[in-house]
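Hi V.,

Quick status before I head out on leave. The structure for the redesign project is tokenized and pasted below; the design run finished overnight.
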């Protein structure tokens, strides 16, 4: 059976093609009776609109592209849920691709989405991204771009983030108020802005409370993994026994630290307190449970899509785009690892 077209429905129901199209899209100037009649027939005949034909008419694909650094990441999966929830309200399909923290793959994924005529791209940059020219082409082509969580200050676009520096400051301040004076930091890679800001928050807390900064107590987690956290904690136990607290850039290195301390029968938090960042599900399941900073992932995804959609509507109306910088609130969750 050939694919049913709008003209076929119009001919069968003795209506104009315009009326049929409006009825299927719930236009208010079409009566409810006509809408019901058209939709029932379309359903009966298993009518599926041709999305490519719709794109040619409207220059909208009703597809949004999302590029995240990792798929196996609780925080990013939470963001995706928020994006999909918001996208569904506007009948958008969401294509999710991963860069696997690779700059080269990120460039390829962005180009693939452009080739699929997406209406816009939501992106969190990879840790290894050192050049944003692949994003500049989006701006040149007037394709809405919204960056979330990990972003670059070199790109002119809207962003949805948290105040990483302030959140890190509060995390370290919490450790200091618990009596900790020798605090190590498991920082993230050198490039992403959020990694930089969390390190700066760590430094600011030390400075404001009169504690000496020791660069040998800062360990870089390139993979931000539990394995790195475990390895660096072993190094601390062997070479820096004076350290009494660890602040990690994310929960996984902190989980690795807890695992190592448990393996060596080091009491937590009596001997060494541990603070994470992100509030992954595992942070409340591990023993002892992990104190951490809670990031509103789902809300971040929802806001990112809403900003994209607002920019798209303004673009259609030839209204100049005003980029937005949204900063969401975070909460410090105190659990057993610092209590």
């Amino acid at each position: 059976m050939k694919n049913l077209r709008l003209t076929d429905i119009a001919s069968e129901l003795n209506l104009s093609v315009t009326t049929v199209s409006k009825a299927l899209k719930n236009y208010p100037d079409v009566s409810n009776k006509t809408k019901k009649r058209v939709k029932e027939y379309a359903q009966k005949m298993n009518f599926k609109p041709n999305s490519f034909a719709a794109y040619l008419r409207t220059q909208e694909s009703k597809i949004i592209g999302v590029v995240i650094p990792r798929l196996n990441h609780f925080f990013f999966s939470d963001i995706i849920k928020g994006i999909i929830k918001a996208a569904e309200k506007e009948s958008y399909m969401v294509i999710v691709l991963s860069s696997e923290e690779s700059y080269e793959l990120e460039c390829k994924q962005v180009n693939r989405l452009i080739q699929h005529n997406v209406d816009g791209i939501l992106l969190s940059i990879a840790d290894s991204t050192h050049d944003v020219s692949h994003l500049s082409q989006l701006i040149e082509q007037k394709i809405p771009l919204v960056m979330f969580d990990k972003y670059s200050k070199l790109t002119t676009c809207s962003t949805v983030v948290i105040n990483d520096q302030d959140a890190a400051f509060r995390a370290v301040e919490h450790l200091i108020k618990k009596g900790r004076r020798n605090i190590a930091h498991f920082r993230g890679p050198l490039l992403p802005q959020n990694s930089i800001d969390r390190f700066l928050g760590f430094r600011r807390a030390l400075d404001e409370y009169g504690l000496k900064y020791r660069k040998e107590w800062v360990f870089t987690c390139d993979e931000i993994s539990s394995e790195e956290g475990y390895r660096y904690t072993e190094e601390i136990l062997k070479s820096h026994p004076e350290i009494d607290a660890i602040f990690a850039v994310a929960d996984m290195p902190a989980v690795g630290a807890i695992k190592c301390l448990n393996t060596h029968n080091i009491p937590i938090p009596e001997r060494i307190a541990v603070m994470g960042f992100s509030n992954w599900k595992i942070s409340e399941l591990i023993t002892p449970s992990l104190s951490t900073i809670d990031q509103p992932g789902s809300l971040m995804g929802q806001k990112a899509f809403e900003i994209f959609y607002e920019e798209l509507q303004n673009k259609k109306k030839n209204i100049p785009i005003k980029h937005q910088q949204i900063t969401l609130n975070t909460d410090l969750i105190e659990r057993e690892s610092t209590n």
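Above is the designed sequence. The chain has three domains: 6-49, 62-161+297-329, 164-294.

G. will cover questions while I'm gone.

Best,
W.
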